[in-house]
Amino acid sequence: MKKLIQTLKNIWGIEELKSKILTTLLLILIFRLCTYIVLPGVDPHKLGSLTSAKSGALGLIDAFSGGAFLQASIVALGIMPYISASIFMQLMTILVPQMQKVQKEGESGRKKINQWTRYLTVIVTFVQAYAYVTYLRTMAKDAIIDSFSPYLWLTTPIVLTAGTLFVMWLGEKITDKGLGNGTSLIIMIGILARLPSAFQQELTAKLAMGSGGILIFVIEIAILIAIIMGLIVLIQGVRKVPVNYAKQIVGNRQFGGARQFLPLKVNSAGVMPIIFAQAIMFLPTLISYTSFENKEGISRIFSDPKDYLHMVIYAVIVVAFTFLYTALIFNPKQIAEDLKRNNGFIPGVKPGQPTTDYIGSVMDKITLPGAILLAIIGILPGFAQRLGVTQGFASFFGGTSLLIMVGVILDTLQQVETQLLMRQYDGLMKSGRIQGRQSSTVSGAVI
């Protein structure tokens, strides 16, 4: 405890770090305040039909926006249009040769891609905003003020687009002036905002069961902690491939000759496979919305996370997308060329194509268990619901929410650790240090 207090004093004693923390908290507070500002022409007291729809695709969007989506807030779409545009641009830089050339231009290329991403965000937000107007007119018709109804098609897309761009600006400011990755922190705060109410609902439900309910609740918390610990291992897990560098003697000095390691992540794809899988699972429910409402047809299977067939399909999609996305972002040939260029080699493996094949085979071997574990994490909320956990609290037992929270917290703690070590303070951990993690980007944003 004394060490923890001393570490907190060290953190607060570093002026630059204190400034970053205060700036981050201020900008996050501004974002949270915006989630309570309702769109023009909407009566906030008549939104009961919206706030009751917290399952499926809409529930996930609402979780990422911190509850703003179902509150008809000016930031109802949150940061998700920017994330969607960033994912698209990221894939284009991998698949389109011309975009690869722009990306390799260094800082100027990165600025061009960021600017194109912003333009695309505006387009995506406008499209989603018009869809949101249709949703409001369908699900919360009584909440729309009659005198303002004719203007809703004009004002709402403009306000929602401005709101999304403002949230995007807040995220960039947090990244530049604050602590951690702004976009990721905004998503994480939106998810955490639902935790207190979900915790309270679960506790109330267990108290209603009698004296045995408290014991069940304690067991649930213990299981949740165990899942989080396992997820940390999955996120930080790496396979270290030994690399030797040839000795070079220049004058009287020797360069190279050291033995290092090439860290290959068990989960290189990060949260992306789960996001893609959820998007695919939501399509049938969006196409056949009427069937979804009646809980009939194939859309029921795709929308019900407790359904065993849903879990199987979901797990298969996650495993498939893990291999696909890893293949897109991980280039063994490029790594082999970089090693050769820097006079590095893997012991027992010839440079060039043999090195490429070796790195690719190692990556395939560690990606399979990583993909299976990621799929298990994805379907854990469904199992939690089957075991009697309330829907809101069950969403924190795995899936996108838990992955994003754990990943962002680890990344932020790593930055604090770096600041402390730079100034020759002890890190956050007494023994060992927080291992960094390669940025798993959904947009250039760590998730």
- Model regions low in confidence, pLDDT < 50 over at least 5 residues: 288-295, 436-447
The overall strand count is 5
Helix content: 55-70%
Please give the count of helices: 19
**Quaternary form:** single chain
Q: For the largest sheet, list the strands in their spatial order.
A: 4-1-5
Tell me the name of the CATH homologous superfamily of the largest domain.
SecY subunit domain
SS content category: mainly alpha
Q: Which band does the percent of strand residues land in? A: 5-15%
For the record, the CATH class of the largest domain is Mainly Alpha
Order of helices and strands: HHHHHHHHHHHEEEEHHHHHEHHH
Question: How far apart are the termini?
Answer: 31 Å
CATH topology of the largest domain: Preprotein translocase SecY subunit
Q: Would you kindly provide a written description of the structure presented here, covering whatever features stand out?
A:
The model is unreliable at 288-295 and 436-447 (pLDDT under 50). 34% of the residues are buried. 67% of the residues lie in helices and 5% in strands. α2 runs antiparallel to α8 (152-177). The longest helix has 34 residues, at 353-386. It is built from 19 helices and five strands. The chain is mainly alpha-helical and 447 residues long. The chain has helices spanning 2-13, 15-34, 48-51, 56-64, 80-95, 97-103, 107-139, 152-177, 182-192, 195-207, 211-236, 272-287, 289-293, 298-303, 308-329, 332-341, 353-386, 391-394, 399-422; strands at residues 238-245, 248-250, 253-255, 259-265, 344-345. It is globular and about 85 Å long. β2 (248-250) and β3 (253-255) form a beta hairpin. It folds into two domains: 12-193, Preprotein translocase SecY subunit (Orthogonal Bundle); 196-397, SecY subunit domain (Preprotein translocase SecY subunit, Orthogonal Bundle). The strands form two sheets. It has a three-stranded antiparallel β-sheet. The protein has a two-stranded antiparallel sheet with strand order 2-3.
